[in-house]
Amino acid sequence: MANAFFSDLLATISERGRTLLRRAGPSDDGQDASELIELCEALLSGRGEASGTAMARDVLDRYHDLDTAGRLSFFETLARDFGPEREKLSQAIESWRNQPNDSDASDLHFASEPRRQELIRRLNRAPGGTSDLVAMRADLLSLMKGNKDLAALDRDMVHLLSSWFNRGFLVLRRIDWSTPANILEQIIRYEAVHEIRDWNDLRRRIDPVDRRCYAFFHPQLNDEPLIFVEVALTEAIPTAIAPLLAAERQPVPVERARTAVFYSISNTQKGLGGISFGSFLIKQVVEELRRELPKLDTFITLSPVPGFMQWLKKAGDVPVSDDERTLLEALDRPDWFENAELTAQLRAVVEPLAAYYFLKARTPKGRLVDSVARFHIGNGARLEKINWLGDLSPKGLRESAGVMVNYLYRLEDIEKNHEAYANQGEIAASSAVKKLLRTEGRRLLDMRLS
């Protein structure tokens, strides 16, 4: 109640200040990026709290009215002309060189900060400013492609957004059928792994006794989930997604559930890309579930493999013979999995290739190829099992040849697995997955000998 009162009061003061500014300032007609830059300079020059807040709101409103070319011009100017004050920075550098000490180091730190960081801070003071800045970064990301000059501006935005959206500010809330409709609509809209077709489909995922959904919220985006995870409570580890999502399935009584399955994790804010909440979300949900259901002893994912088919088709390091490459072409047929003989032949080739894809294949920068694998392995999970024909949806067949995987979160091993991956690049994997890789090795040897 107090927060709402304060927000309303601030918005009222801001609106009155903005009205005064508009009476005294130029007309909005013909607004372009250059006029917006002038307003940003005025905002940085220092005003009273009310007028500064109103001016920040005005900047964000005028930015919203710019077209794509205007926004690009605005971003380019911020990147080019709103860096550190060079004279002040030169003086700080000279002082540090003459007599290095903690005070001079602090001066050097503050002098090296780009002016655009302070501009972004002041914009954040406007009512609704945080949400607008997240949307602004989404625009920046879309305009950065092929434009390296904007990278410095993006680094500054990420630096500030990472501080404002750190774990200490996030609130975990359970999503159920009593959650307000505007939030439920966002769950439907932003589900990125397994499409939610309608309200009935959503209810099947969040309402039964063996289903859970949790989301992180931020106080400044109170009705907008940042990221959410869907959980199924099961008796055993699942190997396919269809039974979990089936409309006619029988719910599992919670007293019999021993496994919590994280089968979908979706981000909702494009502007927060690169700012990770997922690891915190999973760990806190595990804690919540253990408190509610102490008998749960297995925490595991049922995850897609979105980059697998692209790697099979385009990567230069796929270890296959010409005959196997011809066989793999059958994966382009929409009904290939209905042919039992063909399916058996493909399985003998695809499963070992999947193990190779996770444990050996790398991007040119040395990273795991698969984005989902990077997320879970980086968070300390173990690659537990490769599931053949785990997802027969059109999307699953198109992206991963139907392959799904389980990543196991064993709480006692998470830190050890994370450190091994972060420091040595080691992938924690079960003996079953490593056995598939050995099968791949024997197959490669046979190829060389033949």
TrEMBL record:
Any one Pfam family match given in the protein's UniProt record, by short name: MCD_N
Biological processes per GO annotation = fatty acid biosynthetic process
Domain (Malonyl-CoA decarboxylase N-terminal) spans 82-165
Q: Where is the Malonyl-CoA decarboxylase C-terminal domain?
A: 168-409
Under InterPro entries, the record lists: Malonyl_CoA_deC, Malonyl_CoA_deC_C, Malonyl_CoA_deC_C_sf, MCD_N, MCD_N_sf
GO terms of molecular function:
malonyl-CoA decarboxylase activity
**What is the protein named?**
Malonyl-CoA decarboxylase
Q: What is the lineage of its organism?
A: Bacteria, Pseudomonadati, Pseudomonadota, Alphaproteobacteria, Hyphomicrobiales
